[in-house]
Amino acid sequence: MQDMQSTERPRPLVTLLTTQDVQRLMKVDRSTVYRMAEDGRLPAVKVGRQWRFPEDQIHDLLRCRPAVPAPDASPGLAEALGPGALQAVSDLLAESMGTMVVVTDLEGHPLTAPSNPCGLFDAVHRFPGVFERCVDSWQVLAAEVDFDPQWRATPLGFLCARSLVRDGGRLVGMILAGGVAPASWPPAPEESARLAAGLGVPAAVIEEHSAEVFHLDERERERVLRLLPRSAAFLSRLATQKSAPAGRIEPTAAAVAAKPQRSEP
After folding, report:
1. What would the pLDDT profile of 124-135 be if each residue is shown by its tens digit?
2. What is the pTM of this model?
């Protein structure tokens, strides 16, 4: 009796990279690779006690260039989730972090209204041209393909950090946390004048509202840096699972954004 031949095509084999392979490709240390695997920034699977990484997805991720969207781009964050749900997530993250939060596309254009904006931000944005300068600075942040969020100075003088959001292997957006005072704040009069000249606003506006920023100690700033990639990974999952009911997004976001609590013995 002749054997029946299957008409199904064999699935292509997936090549898995080791942690050392990913270290060489990304030029980061082992602990960074582990953190990114655990919080969802890198596609990874556990094989026993070891992380393994799908080679094709890692190369796709490293080939991403934020400022250049793919020709066959899938819907962005706003289209995938809806602006209302995206704003709700942004508001929840801002409350959890204790900072201003805004979600943007990869060209720095806001997809949400700034959540929990500080007084200095509101004051200078009443002047023409300031918004465009902020968008330019956000675009620079999006174009920097560093994986761990870092605090960076902004045109307003306060600090900002970001994490990139991806949909599968494609970068689709960015979460920004900002309005945080640096160590040396408020700025001296000459620094206020320099910031004001760069923004095209009166120096008196900077001086009058310089106290209206978020003062976080070192531990709180580190907490925000830890929370940003978790938040970006959460939005990445939402973007990938576009069929998730919008009504479930807000409570899920609250659970993800909330600081983990230790259970009582």
Report:
1. 999 998 988 888
2. 0.67
